[in-house]
Amino acid sequence: MKQFTHAWLAFMAIKRLEHAVSSPGLSPELTTDDRGYADGLIKWFKNNRDGVIRGAWYPDSLIKDMATSHILKFEPYDAGTEKLKRLPETYLTYKHSKESPVRNRNFTVADKANNLPDRCESLTHSVIDHLKVRESEKKGSAVSPTNNQVALWLFMLSHYVADAHVPLHCDARKFSGGVDIHTEMEGEWDGEIRKYYQIDKSEKGNKRFLYDPDGYPLVKSGKRQEYESSYLKKADEELSGRKFSPLFGTANNNVWDFTKAICQHSYLLSHCFLPEDCTPTTVTLQNWKSLGGLSFDKLSTAILSDATDSIARIWFRAWRRYAKWEKGQT
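Below the sequence we write its predicted structure tokens.
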């Protein structure tokens, strides 16, 4: 994904948490305690939101570990030993992937150097550790992280989580050469966000969204009617009708498990969108959006809504873990 898509997803994840219902005793909705943890994260994010466009882009603009840590690519393999993990059943990616032509085939990781789940797990621990050190050290301590530093780790974490939802980050087929469908796909999402949202680019090196009264990216006044039919709006509506849960899905015990499950289903989703007989020479700029049984509009709605949900779950779990430690709880 590109810069504004990553930043927009971070905002939508916080919006997801803010709109989650607190219903004690009615699993999987937020409990009263969880509502408190979520509210703390929401307040903290909004105090640091102006840096999200830059911070969430650092993995691409500065770290540049795209060849290994932004991907986990799979391929069909008769002797493959990978076991398909479960995603939350509310995820559109999970629902669409049931129709994948390679769902019942053995598969394997195509390159053992790919380590996207490890990167997400590591950054999650970094967020928690930085929050703990900041809380433990006196103000002004030379080793105490600042709020800006913690924000950067959170924003970077959201980048890697979002990348796990990109089908071509998880499909070993070569679609980055030739007409470069990979770049075209990500460019479409970023173009859609730039088309509909007001972005202030006046301050050199620190682009930021303009905000609506609730503190979220502001839709351009002249584009509001058109926005109603965009897949950005459809992703928002999908989440509005989906119950929020902090769980990672059956048998996913941590961020590593969850991220790997996302990558596996993104691989399946890629084969729904780009059939097996597609090659870099048969896919063109004119036909790439309509080659499979899944339209680009539906694909985008699934990816953007599920990526938002995943970022919200991982951020919330990390923040809750720190907050419980702060209270002296396990």
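The chain has one domain: 3-326.
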